[in-house]
Amino acid sequence: xxxxxxxxxxxxxxxxxxxxxxxxxxxxxxxxxxxxxxxxxxxxxxxxxxxxxxxxxxxxxxxxxxxxxxxxxxxxxxxxxxxxxxxxxxxxxxxxxxxxxxxxxxxxxxxxxxxxxxxxxxxxxxxxxxxxxxxxxxxxxxxxxxxxxxxxxxxxxxxxxxxxxxxxxxxxxxxxxxxxxxxxxxxxxxxxxxxxxxxxxxxxxxxxxxxxxxxxxxxxxxxxxxxxxxxxxxxxxxxxxxxxxxxxxxxxxxxxxxxxxxxxxxxxxxxxxxxxxxxxxxxxxxxxxxxxxxxxxxxxxxxxxxxxxxxxxxxxxxxxxxxxxxxxxxxxxxxxxxxxxxxxxxxxxxxxxxxxx
Length: 357
Fold this sequence. Notes:
Elements lengths: L34 H11 L9 H6 L1 H31 L53 E2 L10 H4 L18 H6 L18 E5 L6 E5 L3 E4 L6 E5 L5 E8 L6 H8 L8 E5 L5 E5 L4 E5 L3 E8 L5 E2 L2 H9 L32
Parallel strand pairs: 1-11
Antiparallel strand pairs: 2-3, 4-5, 5-6, 6-10, 7-8, 8-9, 9-10
């Protein structure tokens, strides 16, 4: 048994005494290596030391690298040569011909030929042709086109007066009490001293359509062009690029003009049309601005349309009226035209206000 020393009793701190032990440490130091010794140490401890074909020796030694690369190249060339040699030998071997396959098909019996009965009529079939020009839509002019200048206010524009030998500065060129626009409207020469028909003035020609037979006056120096060989579409062109088109459309039997108009001119307003009469008393209809005219016989509808250029100005509205007033369809016999006099002449009810003197 051990007992607590008496020093701890009564709160007395004991005095601890350590035994002093002395120890001597001797530090050993490495001897310094000379340069040859250090080189030999590095060589002996380097990677691949003592192994001739170690990758480190091959990659770092130029001689070994050349030998190794040459050997690898020879091996690859040899492998490729062997591969192609084997392929050529296989292709050179003759292959056994395949057995021919014989297919047996049942022949199709020819169609039966039946004789028509005595009452049966065989009608040859015909193929439908492509849509003709008669089915092409109508290109209508704008209803908001204005007229070019008319210096003397005779209802012939200055450009139109040149077509009839009239003076653009005088409303009555021949001084016969009728202004120039009035005489052209009634198909008379505005520059003649005596009553002279416009067709005899040398300023207009009478065009006759060789296919449909209609007739119409046109200015002498205007060009005529057939849009197609059928004669359905003819252009009377001016030197300014404007033209008047005359097209022929077929009309169904018993088809009224109102029904034809609803079918062929769906974007036009029928209420804008007014009754019209030519100088030869042939009846028709025209749009209120005198840029579109319609004539109709038993089988056809004739449409006269004015086309401008990119401009919004009309140079030859009075010429359009003159041409429409001279229109005659096939089979129409015009009456004799009696020259008007200042005392007896009256303006017809159908005369448009835009060309009234």
